[in-house]
Amino acid sequence: MPLGFERRFERRVKRTIMEHGLINKDERIAVACSGGKDSAVMLHLLNKLGCKTEAVFIDLGMGSYTENSLKSAEELCAKEGVKLRKISLKKETGKTMPEIIKNSEKSGISPCVACGTLKRYILNKKSRELGADRIAMGHNLDDIAETVVISMITGKIELAMRIGPVTESYDKRMVSRIRPLFFSEDCDVLRYCRIARLPFFSGKCRYSSNALRPFVRKMIIQMEEKCPGAKKNIVSNFIKIKEKWKGSRPKLKSCMQCGEPSLKNLCRACRIINAAGIRS
Hints:
Layout: H1 5-19, E1 28-32, H2 37-48, E2 52-59, H3 64-80, E3 84-88, H4 89-93, H5 97-104, H6 111-130, E4 134-136, H7 141-153, H8 157-160, E5 166-167, E6 176-178, H9 186-195, H10 212-226, H11 230-244, E7 253-254, E8 261-262, H12 268-275
Parallel strand pairs: 1-2, 1-4, 2-3, 4-6
Antiparallel strand pairs: 5-6, 7-8
């Protein structure tokens, strides 16, 4: 008797975790919880597998968007019996994301770059302080395919080489990141989320309309229609290329301003914070 969709989806995620060594026994997992469907499904499945999880939500101070996202995250964590730790961006930096974007854009820093950089910065810092062994990210197959294409058309393929089911840490200050949904398609994640009746917020960020990712997403959807399996092929071939990549791991320095790990003397987060006029 063939397995139903729900069982097949769960098996795929479990296989991803097992085959790629995402989680070791007794490791503490900080789950990046945005209030969206991906993090909802990820938290639910990690919880179902008996992992030691704690959800982390970053309050970006974006009005109703943040309020609705937080409400969904709180409902999810209450349903799953998982502790939710809320981190305020304003408390950490002195400004909300809209305030940071308003000023950093003047320096040529796009909203998505500013937001993504600061979220990763805070997530790593706080997860390390919590004693987490891994940070679970909700990126699915579609997200990965988009990132690979974006890295190619912007000439930043070396950045994509950090992406995989697991990004191991080679510096004790960086918490290893895992992506349990790496091989799961966006449509399947949404379907599973609805079947499992998990609360999630589907609103769009007001800054996303002018970003490159929505354009690339539409392009990949068109590619998928013309060539079924295109998304999977983009990711699987990228993995093959990555395995043969001989690039060396650069030694991380300490940011001269905040002390966090950085490739340069001043980390990207501090450069954004400075551009936003938060620090003198």
